[in-house]
Inverse folding.
Protein backbone atom coordinates (compact mmCIF):
# COMPACT_ATOMS: atom_id res chain seq x y z
CA UNK A 1 0.00 0.00 0.00
CA UNK A 2 0.90 3.67 -0.12
CA UNK A 3 3.35 4.84 2.53
CA UNK A 4 5.62 7.67 3.63
CA UNK A 5 9.07 7.32 5.18
CA UNK A 6 10.71 10.16 7.06
CA UNK A 7 14.14 10.48 8.60
CA UNK A 8 14.12 9.74 12.29
CA UNK A 9 14.70 12.52 14.74
CA UNK A 10 15.36 14.34 16.76
CA UNK A 11 17.21 16.79 14.57
CA UNK A 12 19.10 19.30 16.70
CA UNK A 13 20.46 22.44 15.04
CA UNK A 14 21.86 25.77 16.07
CA UNK A 15 20.00 28.91 15.07
CA UNK A 16 20.70 30.00 11.47
CA UNK A 17 21.82 26.50 10.43
CA UNK A 18 20.58 24.84 7.23
CA UNK A 19 17.78 22.31 7.62
CA UNK A 20 16.98 19.22 5.58
CA UNK A 21 14.38 16.66 6.61
CA UNK A 22 14.21 13.73 4.23
CA UNK A 23 10.92 12.26 3.04
CA UNK A 24 10.37 9.49 0.52
CA UNK A 25 7.12 7.89 -0.52
CA UNK A 26 5.70 4.75 -2.09
CA UNK A 27 2.53 5.09 -4.12
CA UNK A 28 0.98 3.83 -7.30
CA UNK A 29 0.47 6.71 -9.67
CA UNK A 30 1.08 10.34 -8.75
CA UNK A 31 0.09 11.36 -5.25
CA UNK A 32 -0.09 14.89 -3.92
CA UNK A 33 2.52 15.60 -1.24
CA UNK A 34 2.33 17.73 1.88
CA UNK A 35 4.38 18.92 4.82
CA UNK A 36 2.55 19.65 8.08
CA UNK A 37 4.01 21.13 11.27
CA UNK A 38 2.91 20.46 14.85
CA UNK A 39 3.90 22.83 17.64
CA UNK A 40 3.88 21.51 21.22
CA UNK A 41 0.40 20.74 22.52
CA UNK A 42 -1.32 21.67 19.28
CA UNK A 43 -2.80 20.08 16.20
CA UNK A 44 -1.13 20.03 12.80
CA UNK A 45 -0.93 22.96 10.40
CA UNK A 46 -0.30 22.77 6.68
CA UNK A 47 3.18 24.10 5.90
CA UNK A 48 3.35 23.53 2.14
CA UNK A 49 2.20 21.20 -0.60
CA UNK A 50 2.93 20.08 -4.18
CA UNK A 51 0.45 18.34 -6.40
CA UNK A 52 2.52 17.26 -9.39
CA UNK A 53 6.05 16.27 -10.32
CA UNK A 54 8.67 19.07 -10.25
CA UNK A 55 6.32 21.39 -8.34
CA UNK A 56 8.00 23.31 -5.53
CA UNK A 57 5.97 24.14 -2.45
CA UNK A 58 7.18 27.00 -0.27
CA UNK A 59 6.05 28.86 2.84
CA UNK A 60 7.72 30.79 5.68
CA UNK A 61 11.18 30.12 4.22
CA UNK A 62 10.60 26.38 3.94
CA UNK A 63 10.73 24.65 0.55
CA UNK A 64 10.19 21.16 -0.83
CA UNK A 65 10.33 19.91 -4.42
CA UNK A 66 8.27 16.97 -5.68
CA UNK A 67 10.83 14.60 -7.26
CA UNK A 68 9.11 11.79 -9.10
CA UNK A 69 12.35 10.13 -10.22
CA UNK A 70 13.53 9.69 -6.62
CA UNK A 71 10.01 9.54 -5.07
CA UNK A 72 11.09 12.21 -2.62
CA UNK A 73 9.79 15.44 -1.09
CA UNK A 74 12.58 16.67 1.18
CA UNK A 75 11.94 19.71 3.37
CA UNK A 76 14.60 22.45 3.45
CA UNK A 77 15.14 25.80 5.09
CA UNK A 78 18.19 27.97 4.67
CA UNK A 79 18.34 29.45 8.16
CA UNK A 80 16.32 28.00 11.02
CA UNK A 81 15.09 29.92 14.04
CA UNK A 82 14.29 28.80 17.58
CA UNK A 83 10.61 29.33 16.73
CA UNK A 84 10.87 26.58 14.08
CA UNK A 85 11.22 23.96 16.82
CA UNK A 86 8.34 21.55 16.24
CA UNK A 87 7.45 18.15 14.81
CA UNK A 88 7.32 18.00 11.01
CA UNK A 89 5.17 15.45 9.17
CA UNK A 90 5.39 14.46 5.54
CA UNK A 91 2.13 13.18 4.07
CA UNK A 92 0.60 12.00 0.83
CA UNK A 93 -2.86 11.95 -0.62
CA UNK A 94 -3.44 8.73 -2.50
CA UNK A 95 -3.56 9.22 -6.25
CA UNK A 96 -6.92 8.71 -7.89
CA UNK A 97 -8.73 8.96 -4.58
CA UNK A 98 -11.97 10.82 -4.14
CA UNK A 99 -11.14 12.10 -0.68
CA UNK A 100 -8.55 14.26 1.02
CA UNK A 101 -7.58 11.65 3.60
CA UNK A 102 -3.83 11.62 4.11
CA UNK A 103 -1.19 9.03 4.86
CA UNK A 104 1.39 10.44 7.26
CA UNK A 105 5.00 9.67 8.02
CA UNK A 106 6.10 9.14 11.59
CA UNK A 107 7.16 12.75 12.10
CA UNK A 108 10.57 14.34 12.72
CA UNK A 109 11.22 16.40 15.82
CA UNK A 110 13.30 19.52 15.15
CA UNK A 111 14.96 21.27 18.07
CA UNK A 112 16.69 24.58 17.33
CA UNK A 113 19.06 25.92 19.96
CA UNK A 114 19.91 29.61 20.33
CA UNK B 1 -12.84 32.94 13.97
CA UNK B 2 -13.47 29.73 12.11
CA UNK B 3 -11.86 26.56 13.29
CA UNK B 4 -12.12 23.14 14.82
CA UNK B 5 -12.80 22.66 18.50
CA UNK B 6 -11.96 19.46 20.29
CA UNK B 7 -12.99 18.94 23.87
CA UNK B 8 -11.87 18.21 26.43
CA UNK B 9 -8.11 18.70 26.08
CA UNK B 10 -7.37 15.95 28.63
CA UNK B 11 -9.62 12.99 29.41
CA UNK B 12 -9.15 10.22 31.95
CA UNK B 13 -11.17 7.02 32.04
CA UNK B 14 -11.11 3.67 33.73
CA UNK B 15 -10.60 0.56 31.67
CA UNK B 16 -13.86 -0.95 30.46
CA UNK B 17 -15.68 2.37 30.08
CA UNK B 18 -16.74 3.86 26.78
CA UNK B 19 -15.78 7.49 26.22
CA UNK B 20 -16.84 10.03 23.58
CA UNK B 21 -14.53 12.70 22.21
CA UNK B 22 -16.12 15.83 20.81
CA UNK B 23 -15.21 17.53 17.54
CA UNK B 24 -17.02 20.60 16.21
CA UNK B 25 -16.15 22.75 13.20
CA UNK B 26 -17.55 26.05 11.94
CA UNK B 27 -15.63 26.09 8.68
CA UNK B 28 -18.58 24.73 6.67
CA UNK B 29 -16.40 21.81 5.58
CA UNK B 30 -18.04 18.73 4.12
CA UNK B 31 -15.37 16.22 5.15
CA UNK B 32 -14.18 15.33 8.64
CA UNK B 33 -11.56 12.91 9.91
CA UNK B 34 -10.31 11.29 13.10
CA UNK B 35 -6.64 10.41 13.50
CA UNK B 36 -4.81 8.79 16.36
CA UNK B 37 -1.25 9.88 17.19
CA UNK B 38 1.18 7.65 19.07
CA UNK B 39 4.87 8.31 19.71
CA UNK B 40 7.01 7.02 16.85
CA UNK B 41 4.00 6.03 14.74
CA UNK B 42 2.83 9.27 13.26
CA UNK B 43 -0.87 9.72 12.60
CA UNK B 44 -3.18 6.85 11.71
CA UNK B 45 -6.66 7.29 10.28
CA UNK B 46 -9.52 5.92 12.39
CA UNK B 47 -12.66 7.07 10.56
CA UNK B 48 -13.62 9.70 8.03
CA UNK B 49 -16.81 11.21 6.71
CA UNK B 50 -17.30 12.98 3.41
CA UNK B 51 -20.90 13.99 3.97
CA UNK B 52 -23.57 14.07 6.65
CA UNK B 53 -24.97 10.67 7.62
CA UNK B 54 -22.14 8.82 5.90
CA UNK B 55 -18.74 7.66 7.17
CA UNK B 56 -16.07 5.11 6.32
CA UNK B 57 -13.55 3.11 8.30
CA UNK B 58 -9.94 4.13 8.17
CA UNK B 59 -6.91 1.96 8.83
CA UNK B 60 -7.50 1.34 12.55
CA UNK B 61 -11.28 1.49 13.09
CA UNK B 62 -11.57 -1.53 15.38
CA UNK B 63 -12.78 -0.54 18.84
CA UNK B 64 -14.04 2.88 17.69
CA UNK B 65 -17.37 4.24 16.47
CA UNK B 66 -18.49 7.57 15.02
CA UNK B 67 -21.62 9.41 13.94
CA UNK B 68 -22.20 12.30 11.56
CA UNK B 69 -25.70 13.59 12.21
CA UNK B 70 -24.76 17.22 11.62
CA UNK B 71 -22.30 18.81 9.24
CA UNK B 72 -20.54 20.59 12.09
CA UNK B 73 -20.06 17.63 14.40
CA UNK B 74 -18.18 14.31 14.20
CA UNK B 75 -17.92 12.70 17.66
CA UNK B 76 -15.68 9.68 18.21
CA UNK B 77 -16.52 6.99 20.75
CA UNK B 78 -13.67 4.90 22.10
CA UNK B 79 -15.24 1.65 23.22
CA UNK B 80 -14.06 -0.89 25.75
CA UNK B 81 -13.14 -3.12 22.79
CA UNK B 82 -10.22 -0.85 21.89
CA UNK B 83 -7.20 -2.67 23.30
CA UNK B 84 -4.84 0.30 23.61
CA UNK B 85 -6.97 3.43 23.88
CA UNK B 86 -4.43 5.71 25.57
CA UNK B 87 -3.31 8.13 22.84
CA UNK B 88 -3.58 11.64 21.44
CA UNK B 89 -6.64 12.00 19.20
CA UNK B 90 -6.82 14.58 16.44
CA UNK B 91 -9.90 15.66 14.52
CA UNK B 92 -9.61 17.38 11.14
CA UNK B 93 -11.83 18.75 8.42
CA UNK B 94 -11.50 19.76 4.79
CA UNK B 95 -13.54 20.94 1.85
CA UNK B 96 -14.55 18.43 -0.79
CA UNK B 97 -12.06 19.92 -3.28
CA UNK B 98 -9.26 17.45 -3.94
CA UNK B 99 -5.88 18.39 -2.42
CA UNK B 100 -7.42 21.00 -0.17
CA UNK B 101 -5.60 21.09 3.17
CA UNK B 102 -6.79 19.41 6.33
CA UNK B 103 -7.54 21.76 9.22
CA UNK B 104 -6.80 20.18 12.58
CA UNK B 105 -8.11 20.75 16.07
CA UNK B 106 -5.75 20.93 19.03
CA UNK B 107 -6.40 17.35 20.02
CA UNK B 108 -7.64 15.39 23.02
CA UNK B 109 -5.22 13.37 25.11
CA UNK B 110 -7.03 10.29 26.42
CA UNK B 111 -5.57 8.28 29.27
CA UNK B 112 -7.18 4.98 30.24
CA UNK B 113 -6.03 3.23 33.40
Amino acid sequence: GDSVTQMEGPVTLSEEAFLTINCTYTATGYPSLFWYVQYPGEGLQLLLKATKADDKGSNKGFEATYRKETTSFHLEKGSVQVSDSAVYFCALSSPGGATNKLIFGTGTLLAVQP
Amino acid sequence: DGGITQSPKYLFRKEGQNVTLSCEQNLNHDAMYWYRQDPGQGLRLIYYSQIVNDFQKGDIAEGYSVSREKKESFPLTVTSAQKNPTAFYLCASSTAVLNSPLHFGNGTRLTVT
Q: What stands out?
A: Chain B has a mean pLDDT of 93. The CA atoms of residues 43 and 62 of chain B lie 16 Å apart. Chain B touches chain A through 27 residues (CB under 8 Å).
